[in-house]
Every structure is written in C-alpha cells, then in structure tokens.
Fold these 4 entries.
Entry 1:
Amino acid sequence: MNERRPRYKGQATIRDIAREADVSISTVSRVLNEHPYVDSHTRKAVWKTATELDYPMSRLRGQASKAQRTMAFLSAVADSHSEGLPALTGGIEQLIVRGAQSVFEDRRIATHIYQSCADIDQLRALIDTNQISGLIFLGGIFDRTLLAWLQEQSIPFVTAGAHAYPLEANSIMANYVQGMVSAIEHLAAGGRRHICLVNGPKTTNTSSEKYWGFRLALCLNDLPCAPYQSTRGSSFDVESGFIATLRLLALGHPVDAIVYADDGLAVGGLKAIKESQRKVPDDISVIGFHNYDFARFAEPALTTIGFDMQMMGRLAALRLCNLMDGAPDDPNVMTVSTRLIVRDST
C-alpha cells in the first residue's frame, strides 16, 4: 500500500514541496515563479507535488500588493522578531541592510529583520512561519552549525560582513587585510616604528582578518612585531577601547601609534591616551576602522579606514537573488575595497 503524503491544508511551504519532490528549494522557487531553465520532468513533478500538498497558488500570481518572496536579515543585535532599521544597533549592519533593501525593493521582495537564532529548531520555525525564501546573516559572528544545516536543506543564504570560514559559503566582506596594510604603510611613512593593535573580541571573524593584516603589514614594512603589540577589547565600544588602551600603555613598552579595529574603540583610546599624559598625534598616532560619522567629530578628528557598507549590502542581495533564480551555488567570497581617510589623529 502506497504511503499517503501529508496534507498541509494550505500551510505547505516551498521547503515542504522541495522535500516531497526531492529537489532543491531554489528549483521549487523557479518552477512556481515560472522561471526558465528547468527541465519539463522536474517542472511537472514540482507542480504535481504543490497541488497534492494544497500549496496556495494565490501566492504565485496577482502579487501587485504582496511580494512573491520574503528575505530575512539575521542580526546578533536586533530585537527578537523586530522589523525595520531602528531595531539594529550596529552602524555597519544598518548600512548593509539599507543597501540590500534597495535591491530587494526594486524586485518587490519583502524583508524582515530578526535576532540570530540560537538553534536549528528556532531557525526552522522562523523559515516555516514567515515563508522565508532566503537569508542574509549580518556582522561577523555566525553559528556554523546553523549555516551548514541551511546548506543541507538547500536554503540560500549569504553572510554579509565577514566570511564563514572554515565553512564554504557565499560571503561579502570588506578587504580588512588591505585596509590594515594601508594603515601601517601610512604610519611607517610618518616615521612610526612601534605600532600596536587594539583588536575586537575573538568571537568575530573580522578580528582575525584584521590581526593577520596587521602582522603582514608590520613584516612588509620591516617593523617590530612582538606579542605585546596586539591586545583586544571585550567588545567594539568606547569603554572597551579605553580599558584596552590603558592596559597596553601600562606595560611600559614603547608605543608611538595604535590602530583600532573599530572607531568606537579608537574614541575610547583617545581618552585613555590623554589621561596617560600623552598627546595625539604628537606622541601617539591613532587610526580607527569603519569611518562612522562620529569619527570626524572626535578630538582630534579620527584617521580611519572606510569602505562602502551599502555596497556590501547590495552585493549580498544581488548574490542572494541570483541563487534564488537558480544560479550555480558555487560558494565564493567577494570583498569590498577599503580606503584610508586621513584626518588629524595621524
């Protein structure tokens, strides 16, 4: 006796169809949205399965007032189930989302922002309940178990802000190594020899990229490279930069320049340097990272490494749309160029 397929009574998702038809979710999406480049046998199988599962065909046509697809941003700093840019507290994440939304809006694709899920069951519920077609993970902290599960389920996603190494996944990130090299070259050209790094926490992939860029740049410029020259803040905020800088200066080693992994850390560092009776840039040059708006209003105005964060979001959205349209899912990492913005702190 043949086993009956489950009846979903109008609540079936494209993931359910993909599972029953034994195809990928992107293939189901292409078939239901009448995209080309799907063979006739697969197309018939998907339509047959969708009909048997009572998939509501009203989702597919007459979508003038409702997008055919819904994309989700998952952020470590968003409030749970919040929607819209005000829910994000990280400046880089706001700009990435803004850039991505410009692409999705042109394609009439709905977007929502959610807090990063803690486990696979929560992620599965989020996708099923909200009919999520694809995801963009924001920032530099990713649960690789969740990402691997998404790959197993053929659910397209892109990480925006950092790579997902050692997992092979589609990622968009700034060229952090290039940025760090340009910062060290600028300091070396100004005669600085004892350059230190106040990095971010180990939990972020971006911190490791900046660290390796820092080490590489010191070697390329024949500069000293000792363990004490690199320390970390507990986060990327002003207080962490202040505490880490005081700790660094208290060691008593020569320091004539400090590069910070974030402008917030650097602003805290400026205060710590002042309290240690040193002057910026006369005694110690300071360089930040990310070129946030407040950097030019620091005292002194902060030299920093910037990049186009909205471009990062646009690239992530375009890659995700291509995956949904059936582009080969050959994982790749795209980088956005960085540039040094020189101000009064160097």
Entry 2:
Amino acid sequence: MKIRQLVFLAMFAVSQSLVFGQASAPLQLVPWKDEMFKVPKVLESRHDGDYLILDYVSSRDINGRDAIPEKQAKPERVSLEVNSMQSDTRLKTRHGWIRHFTVGTTTNASIIVVYLHGKGGSRDQGVDDKTFGGNFNRLKNLVAQSGGLYLSPDIASFSGRGAKQIYGMLMHYAALSPRAKIVISCGSAGGVVSYQLCRQSDLAERLGGLILLGSFPNNQFIGSDAFESRVPVYIGHGSRDWVSYLQKMDSLYLHIREKSPGYPIRFERFESGTHGTPIRMIDWRKTINWFLTQN
C-alpha cells in the first residue's frame, strides 16, 4: 500500500472518533481546510439570516483560489490522498446501467452525498480535483473522512429515464447503509432530476437535504414528498446568472416560505457571481452540517 494511502487511512480513523465520539450528538462532517473555503463576508442579511447576500469578487475568489484561473486550483487547496478511496464503477438498475464514481465507504456509510451535473456535464465533474477552486476535492475529503459515501453519476437524460436510474442507484446504496441520510446536490439542470427524485416517497424518507447550485425553479417541489417531509433546502445563486435568473430562484425561496412558514430553507446570493459561482463558493461543510441539525 502506498504511503499516502496509509496516511489517509490513519486520518480517516482519527476522524471517526471525532464524528462518532458522542453517540447522542447528531452527525457532523469533520473539519477540512475550513479557513480556505469559508464564504465571503455578508453584505446583507434577511429573514433572520436565512437569506444572505455575500461579497463575491471574481479577482479574489477565482484568481485567489486558482493557480490557473478556472482550470487549476492552488495546490494547497487540494489533497489527492482521498483518491485512494475513489472508484469508477457502474451499476445495473431496472432502467439500465449507470456509470458513477464512488468515494469513501460503500457499506454502513454515515452519510450519502450525491452530486448531479448539469447539461453537457458528466460524472467526471463531481470528482474533478482541479476546477472550481478545489471545491469538489474538498467535498470528497469531507465526506470520506467523516465515514460517508460520495457519489458522482452520469445522467443519461434529464427526462424520466435519467431520474429513474439515479433513483435506482441511490436506493441501492441506501440499502447498504440503512442509517445514512442522503443529501442531493446539483448544479444547473441537475435540478431537473433532483425535483423528480423529491417526488419518490421512499427516497424522501431518507433525504437529509437538497442543494440547488445555479439551478432552476420548479414549483412542483411544493407538495412533493420531500416538501411534506420538510427536507432542508439550500439555494446558492449568482446575482448575474444569465442562464438561470436570480429573480426566479428568489421567487421559489419566497414561495416555499409562504406555503410552509418556518420551513428549513436558506439562500446564499453571491453578489456579481455568474452561473458556476455557487459550485465554486458553497461551503459544503457548513451547509451539510446545518442539514444534519435539522433531522
């Protein structure tokens, strides 16, 4: 076994004592480069902090995080030891084979986190260590070092077949980790699949949270099984997103609050950010740990 694999496994063992040290406490993802990935300062706070306008500056938050802007994160932001726990695999579902990456443990996982890419993307995006300032590398490390399972699948289509394949994959791994909550995260059009998954009652029972990054609104979420179960929702959006307009996601946020007062939903608006900004800027640990305190 390579030295870096041994080092990572030792770190993993220590993290387990931190995650599960107090049986009565809710699961929390262990710290990992938190200071490097903290969100910018708050320019404005609304609704008791549920809606934040954040100070995003591309010259700082792209150039300051990347060695090669938008192509290569600075090396200190990335740790590749986690890739010793990464596997490119495929699974046969009732609706066909689905290719996907797994990172972490595939059985008795503490948590299951899935990332659904947008149109033109693939399973490679969610495990890319270089792009988005290293934020996917951080997510892999956070989940794996906390005893969880991270999944990054191909989406065959954004219609019913693609969602059915993702559903089959999630239920397969859910059966192998019966105590794990499932967090669905998506970028852009991946939200189309996410909303379909939210209408599956047996999956909704296991959902720990829904993350929408530069995604699109769909009022069918209201009344879905996930909505009725009050699954926590996080929306991250750039104020200058010309692919999915900010105002439409604002409307979804307000609609959910109106239909269900006190609903656990948070919105982070990255001022001057564009379509891919929320994927780069989301603080995965802060967001997922908030989810875990709501369940």
Entry 3:
Amino acid sequence: MSTSAWNPPKEVSAQRAIRRRRVALAVLALASCTSSATGAKATGELGNGTFDYFCTGASDPVCEGGVPATDFPDCLLLGGRFEMGYTAYDLDELHGWGYEFVYVKPASESFFGGLDGLTALRLGTSAFVAYADDNVIDILHVTTVAPDGIILKGAESTDPVDLVEVEVGSAVSIQAFGSSTACAQVGGAVPVTVESSDAAVARAGTGDGVQISGEAEGTATITVHLGELSREVQVVVIPAATTTDTDSSAETETGATETSATETGATETGATETGATTGDSSGDATGSSGTGSDSGTGTGTGG
C-alpha cells in the first residue's frame, strides 16, 4: 500500500471523512481501470494489493490437472465455484493504523454467494471488495459468462480426449471443464453429471474429475452433462492384463554353436594294394617232346 494514499489524519472524524472521499473517488474511476494479472493474482483497481484466486474443484479450468492457478481468470463461469482472497501490499501499515482484519467479499451477494466457497449466480459484471475491518481498501470487477462448451482431457494430459481404454476391473479418470468463446481463460468449477450407455460394460461417476471403471469387455458411451450442454466419450473395455513370469534374466541361448571340428577325418589313403600280380608267367611249360626214331634208311643211286 502506498503511504501517500493513506496518510494518517490527526483526528478519527477527519480520518473517516477522508476514507469516504477516497472510496467515492475510486468508485467513479473504476470504469477506466483495468486489472493486470500476475500468476493467480490480479492487482486491485485501487492499487493497494492483489486479489487472489483459488480453485475449489478439479473441474476448474484455471487449475487444470490439479496444478495451482497460474492465470487469474478473464471471466467466471455461471454456476462455477471458487474462492477469492486478498493480499495487502503493506499489512504492517494497516496494523499500525489499528486495523486487525483484512478480508474480501462480493459487492453483491446476488452475483456471488455461498458459505463453502463462492458460486457465480448471475450473468454480468460485479465486484469484489477488499476490507480492512469495515473500511474499503480495494476493489476488483469481474464478469460472469455462461459456458457454451465442455472440454474433456486426460487426467495427466493437456490434450482433448474423445476415446479412452480401460481394463476390466480397473478405472481411469478424465477431466471435464466448462468453456466459453467469450473469454480466453475462464474460471469456476462447474459441477457435471455423467451417464453410461451400458453400465454393465463401463460405469461412470464424478468426484475428483470423471471416473470411468471397466466392468466387462465391450464398448460403451459415457455422456458428460454440464447444464444443458453435453459431450460424449467412447470407452473401450479390454481384458485385464495377465501376469506372466517373464524371466527377464532368461539367457538367449545362443548355445555354443558347435562348430564341432569339421571332421576332416584322416582321408584314408589306404595303401592301394598294388598286389603282386605275379602270375606264374615263369611257369615251366616245357613239355617232354617225344623223339621218334626213324630207322628207315633209303638208299638211292643216281645215275
């Protein structure tokens, strides 16, 4: 809080008069003021601190996936639930002035109401007011719009989802958010309802998102309703995975490729038996030649 904006008056009556004048002037200037968002904070239009936005449910698009808010919403969704806080820039100074409590509340309970968090009840623009005890120290205007669409996303993904797969006996979770083409970043957890086309195959319920459980093999359609809006997601239920003892240490038996000694067996060059074909060529064929004795004697006389 700037000290120039909150110089202590000398008397209580003068102090109250100055506060009233400052608040009146600030309200007149609201039309030309715009808030700047830093993370989940928006600077108040009087510049004395930040209005802090908090999600109260898994269906708030500001806290997608359960992650703390990063951007103060441009608009709030009709029917959306949230919480609003305030952080003064100079709380010590406020305490020094004798203020004990700093808090924020809607300027009109017809726009924002509720005991357990706040709910956007009406379309249009209204304000949140920060108080130090019963004195106004800051203000912020916020516009409420009607949702005109539903966005479905995986529990741990930022990608839209139209088809989910779940095993028999298991469950998956998806996120369901309201959306509006009127604002880049909307806020507020708008309650949704769900129904299944075949509860014997897949059941659906709400809680921290949309829970889908597989009951039996087959397909079913889960319809998500947000007011008069609806969006469908196809569900395929597959058999439960069987546990197999896959021995990860099983050795790929590249068994000793038995390059058994290629038996280049001793090629038996056996002694080629050049057997002594020693025929009996030298055998004596000496037959006994019989000698006949011609004993005739011819005597001739040549004349």
Entry 4:
Amino acid sequence: MVYSAIFGFNPSKGARSPIIWNQLYKGLGIEGHMIAVDCETEEDFKDQFTKLSKDEEFQGGAIAAPYKEIACQLAIPSENIFRDIGAVNCIYRGEDNYLESANTDAVAAINEISKLVDIDQDINVLLMGFGGTGKAVASLLRAKLTINSLINITCRSIPNHILLRKDNVIYLPWEKRSDLIQSYDLIVNCSSMGDINHLELNPFETGWYEKVKDSAAVYDVIYNPKETLFLKGLGKNINSLNGEGMNKLQALIAFQYCNQKFSINEINAIPLEL
C-alpha cells in the first residue's frame, strides 16, 4: 500500500490535504492514504522528511508552512520557475524514483485571483507577506500580468530574492504598506496573519479599509478560518475570496504529480466532501 504525507508545523490541526487526498485514493481505487506529520523545528522536519523519503512506498505529498523553502533544498525542483521561487509545496517521485518538487500553490492561486480581476489588464497590486506562499504567488502573478502592471511586495524585512530584481516589482517596507492603499486594484494577503494559529492578527488596521477603492479586488490565501479578521473588515461591496478554492485546486494538482497515470480531469471528477 502506498502512502503520502503533509509536512508542516501542525497540519494535524486542520489541514485539508489529508481529507482531499484520502477521498481521491478511495475514489480512484488506489490502496493508499495520506498522513499528517507535525514538525516543531526545522531539524525535526529534515529528520522526518529524510526518514520517509527512504521508504519506497512513500509517494511524496504536500509541504505546509513554514517548511516550503527548506523542502526546495531537499527535493529537486522540476522546473526553473519553481527553482526561482525558492519554495515548493509538493514533492513526488520523479525519474529514477528520486523525490522532485513543484509549487502548486502558485498555479491554484492565480486561477482564483483571475476570478476576481482581469489580469490581462494593467493593474496595481499590493501583496502582503513574502514567505513560501508569497514568493510562489508573486512570481507566477508577475509572469502572467501585463508589462505595465506593478506588484508592490511588503513584508517585515527586505528579502534577498531574484523577484525583487525584476521589472515591475517593488519592495515596500511593512510600515509603509498603507501609504497607497487607495491606488491598488488587487490586494493579496499571503501572510499567516489571521490563520488558525494567528486568529487575532490582521495585516490591516481598522482605518485603512475606508481607503480601499470600491473597484478593488481582495484575495486572502488563508482558508482556515474561512473568514479572517482581514476579510471581515471589508465592505460588502468589495469583491473578495478566501483561500478555499486555491487549497482544493493545489491539492488536486499535487495529487496528480504523485499519481501521474491519472489525468487532472479524472482526479477532478471525484466528488469530494469537505
């Protein structure tokens, strides 16, 4: 029997990948299951990762925060863009049975963001948070946007990342993130502020919401809880989405990486209870 795993700080406390993957295994007639592996430290993650990678029945699986960048070093990225991002959320058996890695967060997030805003038009973006998910979303979003669009990346410290040397990308100090709120067409929260481990945190302060223009779109990658403090503060007229759709789609794509004899259409056809 094959198996997969989701690694993270505490995926056993709410990660949806095991729920999705285990239903897919059953629906596709695969004798397999996904487990959650809680890792409190980087060393713990490396030890658990190394242990499972030696087991031939281990297919791979998902990488959750905060280990997406370390995983990129442990499993070879299968494409240059994943290497440039520097963070992965999916590992799978590639050629010669070695573990390779990919980033399905980016593809899934852009799919969801495209429901909110026309990325074929010139837009001004504020992206908050530049960890593993933020790097993935920002990198692929820049590749998809027009040359006249602008991505303003804000986080607590100046990141040393190839994306910050690209055209149409600006680093904005965290304390300056509210300065031009009224100019943004798309605001994306890629930070962990508001997630199940940080319910009381919000990347926005109360007085900032009134500055957001009515035509703006807001996307929050967080799906647990469904409505963060960040989203709760928005006016009803603001077009917004949480990370539920992204979370489901990235899991389907990651499952396909690990089970390549099935097409993404076959996988997507399996009914899921979430």
